[in-house]
Amino acid sequence: xxxxxxxxxxxxxxxxxxxxxxxxxxxxxxxxxxxxxxxxxxxxxxxxxxxxxxxxxxxxxxxxxxxxxxxxxxxxxxxxxxxxxxxxxxxxxxxxxxxxxxxxxxxxxxxxxxxxxxxxxxxxxxxxxxxxxxxxxxxxxxxxxxxxxxxxxxxxxxxxxxxxxxxxxxxxxxxxxxxxxxxxxxxxxxxxxxxxxxxxxxxxxxxxxxxxxxxxxxxxxxxxxxxxxxxxxxxxxxxxxxxxxxxxxxxxxxxxxxxxxxxxxxxxxxxxxxxxxxxxxxxxxxxxxxxxxxxxxxxxxxxxxxxxxxxxxxxxxxxxxxxxxxxxxxxxxxxxxxxxxxxxxxxxxxxxxxxxxxxxxxxxxxxxxxxxxxxxxxxxxxxxxxxxxx
Length: 390
Ligand code: APR
Ligand code: PHB
What we know:
Layout: E1 2-8, H1 12-23, E2 28-31, H2 36-40, E3 47-48, H3 50-58, H4 63-68, E4 70-72, E5 74-79, E6 83-88, H5 89-93, E7 97-99, H6 102-116, E8 119-121, E9 125-130, E10 137-142, E11 145-156, E12 174-189, E13 197-201, E14 207-213, E15 216-223, H7 234-244, H8 247-250, E16 258-272, E17 275-276, E18 279-281, E19 287-288, H9 296-317, H10 321-348, H11 356-371, H12 373-384
The protein binds adenosine-5-diphosphoribose (APR) and P-hydroxybenzoic acid (PHB).
């Protein structure tokens, strides 16, 4: 087989790239190691920056998102039990956000890719990238048969455990990493959410109330990394959540059985460069952010926006300017989100070794954020998403 671009991974990054390349007439094949049902069963974040909303709209992917997504503009942060600060991104910046789950986006993307007749090979095993520096080819096994595709470029969209990043020689790569000493226990519940996102810094640990749709809520509590979901029956989860948020908000929450429950560690990670010869990385393949701030999906979307534009310019105009600047341009945006997610994680969680000094410093930062409009503007600017470079 021969094609212009092989895309490894059909998560949000790989599938959006397929859609954008397909619309521009760039031939490509997507290789995904899991089944479609498996990818669709993964529950992940659900807050879209407005820039992401616009990218999806421009790509013709917004029909259901605009119908079912919840536009919102207020981020509430609770601290010291009962103090509350509220940041209205629309009032401060004229910009809003959209709550729309990654699972829905993935469904919309698969539907669009099917409708356009683009090829995703699911359950493609043992994917290997050869000669990424010059004339790449990709081998894999599907239905027990070994295949090989020669291509001009490989787009590594295969998440943090994929094969693309490590196809770049270690001598060329620089990795930046930070682990946090706790996880997030998350549940989905078919109950009405609070009207606004609520983050809480509480002495028992962080908590977050989020939403998917008018009858689907997403909640999280900080927990030790050694915990398993068996340690957290629903009753314990609800008690802990309601303790960590202010009483007037807790009174508004309707509890119910969880329909999904999982624990995820928090980690910051970035690998540079995001290009090696003919291999380009996008999304979680190149970087991981902790979920505080909901940047992971948005970064996957902005990387792919830059990368699709670069491939399209190469094929349609013979112009490699965007291909050549991809790694630097994408990394600049990645580090904006990397820094913001790290600082929000530091601001809102209880660390096991936290001193009274650390706690006072955290409280002071929250107090400053609650009283300073310029601090709120800086926060909102990063929360709703830093601008895309043209
Ligand atoms: N071969 C083929 N496919 C692979 C391989 C491989 N060796 N390794 C991983 N994959 C697939 C995974 O099965 C997954 O479907 O690549 C896909 C990567 O998808 P994601 O992990 O969702 O990453 P990405 O598309 O970059 O989306 C980032 O997802 O993890 C969240 O918070 C993150 O919201 C962000 C978004
Ligand atoms: C979510 O809705 O899952 C969510 C919202 C905000 C975050 C993280 C996750 O910061």
